[in-house]
């Protein structure tokens, strides 16, 4: 597929941005389908549009591609964005997502400059930000399940997140090494997205956990502080 099959409609206002309305599917391998819609940050300030999720991820090798169908047009996307959208796609409802590579016309330098200037507000206005780390390393599912169970209980003030997990210290050390080897943690600019966001979640495959629970369990606060 060729990305020039999609024609972006120009943004009308200085605080305008696009949101992807990602269509639902119960099938993870089904074609990605959706539509791009214009919104303004002013509308967001007054709750005139439904909440959206901002995506934080790392672009990968452009030679590996996916495709999303938008209103009958096809748009090439990187493999990492393809994976993130598939993992975030809901089985039964439309998801409203802001993703830099898709919601900004990358062929329009003037628009890119204006949109980059708005990115701080786009992330801070989002209802959630999802950090998509890609594939889960071995054992990650167990860690995520433990973290979800832990988040439903009250943590004791004198008990660390690590002590409440059923995984061993060696398991956690292995998870931590795998986590920090992810490309997301080697890119400086993504930390700006993290700091600007109000409700941050970490996702690997279809597993999602709140950022602060994740940090408590694998002791990575020193990495991002």
Automatic annotation (TrEMBL):
Note one Pfam family from the annotation: HET
Name the UniProt record assigns to this protein: Heterokaryon incompatibility domain-containing protein
Q: What organism is listed for this UniProt entry?
A: Gibberella moniliformis (strain M3125 / FGSC 7600)
Q: Which residues belong to any copy of the Heterokaryon incompatibility domain?
A: 52-193
Superkingdom of the source species: Eukaryota
């Amino acid at each position: 597929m060729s990305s020039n099959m999609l024609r972006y409609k120009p943004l009308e206002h200085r605080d305008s941005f696009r949101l992807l309305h990602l269509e639902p599917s119960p099938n993870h391998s089904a074609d990605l389908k959706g539509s791009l819609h214009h919104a303004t940050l002013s509308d967001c300030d007054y709750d005139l549009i439904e909440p959206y999720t901002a995506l934080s991820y790392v672009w990968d090798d452009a030679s590996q591609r996916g495709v999303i169908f938008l209103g009958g047009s096809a748009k090439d996307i990187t493999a990492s964005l393809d994976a993130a959208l598939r993992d975030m796609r809901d089985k039964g409802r439309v998801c409203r997502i802001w993703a830099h590579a898709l919601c900004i016309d990358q062929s329009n330098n003037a628009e890119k400059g204006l949109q980059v200037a708005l990115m701080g507000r786009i992330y801070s206005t989002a209802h959630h930000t999802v950090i998509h780390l890609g594939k889960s390393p071995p054992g990650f599912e167990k860690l995520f399940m433990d973290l979800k169970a832990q988040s439903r209980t009250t943590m004791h003030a004198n008990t660390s997140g690590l002590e409440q997990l059923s995984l061993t210290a060696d398991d956690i050390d292995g998870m931590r090494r795998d986590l920090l080897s992810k490309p997301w943690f080697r890119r400086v600019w993504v930390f700006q997205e993290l700091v600007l966001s109000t409700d941050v979640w970490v996702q690997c495959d279809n597993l999602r956990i709140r950022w602060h629970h994740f940090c408590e369990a694998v002791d990575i606060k020193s990495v991002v502080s």
